[in-house]
Amino acid sequence: MLSMLSLSTPLLFSLATFPNRVIYNTLATAVVCSSNCFGESPISLLERCKSMYHLKQIHSHTVKIGLSSDPLFQNQVIVFCCAHQSGDMDYARQVFDTIPHPTAFIWNTMIKGYSRINRPENGVSMYLFMLANGIKPDRYTFPFLLKGFNSDMALQHGKMLLNHAVKHGFDSNLFVQKAFIHMFSLCGLVDLAYKVFYMGDAWEVVTWNIMLSGYNRVKQFKKSKKLFNEMEKRGVLPNSVTLVLMLSAFSKLKDLDGGKNIFKYIKEGIVEPNLILENALIDMFSSCGEMDAAQGVFDNMKARDVISWTCIVTGFANVGQIDLARKYFDQMPERDYVSWTAMIDGYLRMNRFIEVLALFREMQMSNVKPDEFTMVSILTACAHLGALELGEWVKTYIDKNSIKNDTFVGNALIDMYFKCGNVGRANTVFKEMRQKDKFTWT
């Protein structure tokens, strides 16, 4: 029986119609067993497949025995190639091109696969090819397509795809709307994001957070405040992410009243405090010069990290309490380059240039690598002290340690050389700078 089935396989599978997957798998298993290669159906093998190498072996065998054109098998191959971490989109496309009439599911799977590997341009091409073949998008098409977008793709295709979504009746679909809001917000196109946001009227807190985050990302903090006020009026309760976003906005705006309103949600037990939220509170109070309140939050924390300590150090340094800032700095269990730079900048603002250089030496001994902002502070201290030799050493240090030498650093070097009386070196740095701003020329 098996040998007869094996001999007539191509004819059998081309003429038979399978009422369900059980019959297909039964026949396929018989064929595969008769070929003495595998002991189970190709579908079952694909479900346990863990690499493209194995998938290609299975696929190659099914081609030989005449099963490779079965829709169920083709779907499984494409799903693996598109979704598995070792998948191969080029191989998926080869299989896709052999399917006479791909379903919307397969089109969406291909689009999702391109987004997964950050090839959104291929996803858009696939989407347009889908439309050209008379297949309409469904509620999954746009979310899959938009997930891989960057700013350039959003600018180039965002409006067109939004118009398509509206045309196909998805302007009131929350799932699709949220995908557009998220994409536009991440890509900095917050006006378009708000346009989509305004279409809906029953947003949960996560979607409000996406909009707030979008405004913060492009530094439109007043719009964040306005949107949060609207959120409160609608009776939508914030969560800890909302509060962190708003504390960040109020910190930048130096809006103490707004920050206190956020603090109210924590004090009244509406939102449970956590480390990130408490750090944001310290930062907000510090930015507004309310160090007693910042210190109160800091002292009552159950756990602190390097950000907590850096916020309190920066806060005291910013209000001129440099010795208190140093006291907290010395108590830090661990320090990163941000902590060191915050303390160095504090001394710099107080014109305590000797301490700037002394602290930088300590930083070097701690094996924490400075960044370009640290080096600008050190160069500024050298300029004020007229320490040309040390400034030259800093220049060499920047070059040897591959520290980003941008316009900011270049301006500091020019300033240091001029103040130390070495006009020739200042001119050399000026000529070597690839980008210059108004401070470079002055």
What can you see in these coordinates?
The chain has 442 residues and is mostly helical. Among the domains are: 203-272, no CATH class; 371-442. It has 28 helices and no strands. The protein has helices at residues 2-7, 9-15, 21-34, 42-47, 52-65, 71-83, 89-96, 104-116, 120-132, 141-146, 151-167, 174-186, 190-199, 205-217, 221-233, 240-253, 256-267, 275-287, 291-299, 306-318, 322-331, 337-349, 353-365, 372-385, 388-400, 407-419, 423-432, 438-441. α6 packs antiparallel against α7 (89-96) and α18 (275-287) runs antiparallel to α19. It is globular, with a radius of gyration of 31 Å. The protein starts with a helix and ends with a helix. Residues 1-20 and 22-38 have low confidence and may be disordered.
Number of helices: 28
Structural class designation:
mainly alpha
Rounded mean pLDDT score: 89
Low-confidence stretches: 1-20, 22-38
- Compute the CA-based radius of gyration: 31 Å
Principal-axes shape call: globular
Q: Quick one: how many beta strands?
A: 0
**Considering DSSP H and I runs of 4 or more, what fraction of the residues is helical?**
over 70%
Strand content: under 5%
What summary fits the major beta sheet? none
User: What is the string of SSEs from the N terminus onward?
Assistant: HHHHHHHHHHHHHHHHHHHHHHHHHHHH
Span between termini: 93 Å
